[in-house]
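#random but structural
TW: two for the price of one
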Amino acid sequence: MDPETRGQEIIKVTPLQQMLASCTGAILTSVIVTPLDVVKIRLQAQNNPLPKGKCFVYSNGLMDHLCVCEEGGNKLWYKKPGNFQGTLDAFFKIIRNEGIKSLWSGLPPTLVMAVPATVIYFTCYDQLSALLRSKLGENETCIPIVAGIVARFGAVTVISPLELIRTKMQSKKFSYVELHRFVSKKVSEDGWISLWRGWAPTVLRDVPFSAMYWYNYEILKKWLCEKSGLYEPTFMINFTSGALSGSFAAVATLPFDVVKTQKQTQLWTYESHKSLIPRLIKIAPACAIMISTYEFGKAFFQKQNVRRQQY
């Protein structure tokens, strides 16, 4: 083992560095994965026109966001005519007729929720994992499960009321004064717990996903390192482990995803019977890109910390 590696064992990345690494991973993931969902929504809207007031689910690779269809005719990005013949045809026609920026339609508002949620989730997971390893030992297999559950539970709890407010602002076009009035009225009538409406189905889907994802990710990463004769995982080992563990967790939690989607929106109910492939196409690359970028960022900061200590 070389001196730099030994130094990296002692010197850990700080919580701030973990937050920066997860923020970078979150933005990169959303930039790469969002076009897949934009094209999917455009194809669905072409086959099933979106009436005003109906909801659809928009995913940026980090979170699913409930969006309410507005008035605006063909000016709204999800109502623009395209005459698409399929997924690839939609990609090319959107780029040619509307410009490449149209592949990221609707992304900026969702990042306000998705990036902080991802930063909270990944930073909490690593901090909890380190704490549990110091108490239970390095090889305790339950650590990824416990840390994954607690981290996801916390992230969903923090973000859930903010997502409810974002959805309400989008559906009603509230001003901030009207929004404050709406929240105050809701709290006075139904209590603070009403701000977490939709929390339960999200937790039922995301917490089991998180537990399975981190458990399998840590096992796969360790196994691939052993097979490759490596002490530290490479970018491709992290990428592969993330894709495989994300795929497995996506298959296992599919029933919870269908329940959550059906509770949110009545659109495209026929997809509940054939939603596995679209879910895998979205989740596998998102998990792979996010975790490999996050681990790469942490490794970068770790090396910087070692060099700073040496000099």
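TW: number two ↓
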Amino acid sequence: MAEMQGLVERLERAVGRLELLSAGSHRPPGDCGEVNGVNGGVAPSVEAFDKLMNSMVAEFLKKSRILAGDVETHAEMVHSAFQAQRAFLLMASQYQQPQEGPVASTASALSVLSLGPGLLPPPPPPPPPGPPPLFESEDRKEGSSPSRSALFAQLNQGEAITKGLRHVTDEQKTYKNPSLRTHGGQTPSPTKSHSPGPKSPQSHPPKKHAPVLELEGKKWRVEYQEGRNDLVISETELRQVAYIFKCSKSTLQMKGKINSIIIDNCKKFGLVFDNVVGIVEVINSKDIQMQVMGRVPTISINKTEGCHIYLSEDALDCEIVSAKSSEMNVLIPQDGDYREFPVPEQFKTAWDGSKLVTEPTEIMVSERPPKPLS
């Protein structure tokens, strides 16, 4: 509250100084006298300001005094500011427009503002001009650089520019000296020294994992088996599943009835099973053989290269779903032997006038299928 009262007093002192300056012109207050050679009353700007003071400002002061307290104090500060502004307008209207030439300096502005403690400090000086455009200076530098001038001078030589090239002998040509290809390219130039590059990191051998063949809850885990052709799971249940992972050069026989089987990331792996009530999936594998002794409704092959499926008489209604795979063959029993039927890998698509029609291309049927696993 004390700070606001101090501000009101400072504004009142400033108004008093401006009124003294106005009175120093030896004219009665409110009378412009002779302005720019014309004798008249109050200037239009002062008259318009008085209308504003007598209407909106007066209404603001009246309502603020009713509210009292800080609102009334703030209103008195606003009133003092308006009075100071009117005194300034009145004084400005009583003098002729000054002539143009020097710009007011910071020192002169500070001397004017130092009339009293109630006035606000002057604004800071404008910032210095920014740096010149970056690209323009760079273009000028590049245009005048000696290296660029030398480059254009070489290009203007025409056919004479090839005189500076070094002759490559037959011993340095890779197509005439195959031994250079095995040693990493051409022989180094005698005029240049080659520093040895960073050595490539040595490749570490793959980590060996312990083979796994165990029942974990309801899942049979067969993992990291290698070179085993005697793997057998004889005790199976309908609720169990089997997951075969990272096995190579091995064969597994599963007896009984199981829910589903998954073969993942295996190579040269064989599987013989009796019955599967769900699905047999082959994923990311290579050179897989499986033989169905009983029944299986669906076999899925995905991202696999080489898969031979031997079906039994009871599994001829099995559905085979394949995607992104190759070298797939289904072997059907006929007259005590098996006949091989390849799964289509190529398809042709044509427009029949209303839609696209896709059908497999014809593939020759093999007459000599491989022998079954059992």
